[in-house]
Structures are given as C-alpha cells and as structure tokens.
Amino acid sequence: MSDDIADRHLVERALASEALLEGGFLHVRRDTVELPDGAQATREYIRHPGAVAVIPLLDDGRLLLERQWRHPVGRVLLELPAGKLDPGEGALACAVRELREETGYTAREWAFAARVHSACAYSTEAIELWFARGLQPGPQRLDEGEFIETVACSADELDALAARGELTDAKTLIGLLWFQRWHAGRWPLQWERAVTIA
After folding, report:
1. Which of 142, 138, 169, 141 is nearest to 55 (CA)?
2. How far is Cα 21 from Cα 165, in angstroms, rounded to an integer?
3. Total H helices, total E strands in the chain
C-alpha cells in the first residue's frame, strides 16, 4: 500500500541500515530514514521470519488453546497454538506442523482467515491466522525445552476472559474476533482439505 500515490506524503525512504543484533531467529536493525518533510530520523526494529496462529475448532464447538510460560512478560498466557515459519516453509504447512507439534491434533480441513501485523511499530512480524476443523487427537511433539498445556474453551468463556482483561495475547484476541464474526456469518471462510506433513 505504501506504493500508492495517495500515500506518498506519508512514506519514509530508507537511507542507511545497520545490524544491531543477529540472534537465533530475531535480528535487530537500525535504519536512517528520510521523512516526508525531508528531515532524517532513525528507526530501530526487529526483523522476524513470520508466523502462523491456528484457530482449532473442536467438534463440540469449543476452541483448542494452550497455556505456556512467556518469559518476556513473566507469566503463563492462554493462547492459540502458533509458531514461526521455518526457512522456505509455507504458512499452511507451518500451521499444520505447529498444531500437531504443540497440541498433538491434526485437522481434516483448513481455512485462511487473515494476515495481521502484531507490533508494526517495531517489528516486521506478520502472523497468518488459519482455522482448523475436523480435529483428531494424537501425541504432542514438543520441541526440547517447550512446556505446553492444552485447554478447550468455549467462545463465551474466552469472551468473558477478554472482557475481564485476563485474555491479553493479541493474536488470540484477533482469532476470537475472527471466530465470532465467522460464526455469525459475517466473515466467510474458504475451507480446503488438509495438507500432509511427515
């Protein structure tokens, strides 16, 4: 959208860029940019490979979520299953893999919902939201050092948690909104058969 002529009065032009940190999968950069008025400024941001989040629908109408410790915020959060894209991996393949690894479930059908920017002021991270249904249970395949507890919640339970300020994860709140709009017939989905992963 920033290529649109109507937005040119808002566009910043990169003049220089330097690496501040090259981590395991996050990279921090500092860019010098020219502002629309010709002045210069710096922008520090995190480069992220992208991620997926899954909205898993159980046959009884509840959603499958997970609880895990999140070190940066120092607490256990209730979240949708999610994970980062591996190099060269497509978003749907990542969604299938993450659902299976983190929850043990596989899904018969999938539907793309949206692509969201979780923290666009300081990160390039974009998360694709995917619905999954026709779930079949199986064993979790957690990564080493990963500890996740699965929990099933109704949309009403999640809505009440959100209203009380207890559901704070952004991708999960957006996923709940998508579920509510889809369930009400307002935001349609195009379902497709599952992909197979090893």
Report:
1. 169
2. 34
3. 3, 11
Among the residue ranges 9-13, 136-140, 191-195, the one predicted with the least confidence is 191-195
The answer to whether the CB of 136 falls within 8 A of the CB of 108 is: yes
Instruction: State the amino acid at position 123 in one-letter form.
Output: S
Dihedral over Cα of 77, 27, 85, 141: its sign: negative
What is the pTM for the complete model shown?
0.92
Contact between 96 and 54 under an 8 Å Cβ cutoff? The reply is no
CA angle at 195 for the pair 192 and 198, rounded to the nearest 5°:
165
Which residues are CB-contacts of 30 (< 8 A; sequence separation ≥ 6)? 17, 18, 20, 42, 43, 44
Structure tokens at 192: 């497709």
Contact call for residues 76 and 69 (beta carbons, < 8 A): yes
Is residue 31 within 8 Å of 21, Cβ to Cβ? no
How many whole angstroms separate alpha carbon 127 and alpha carbon 55?
A: 12
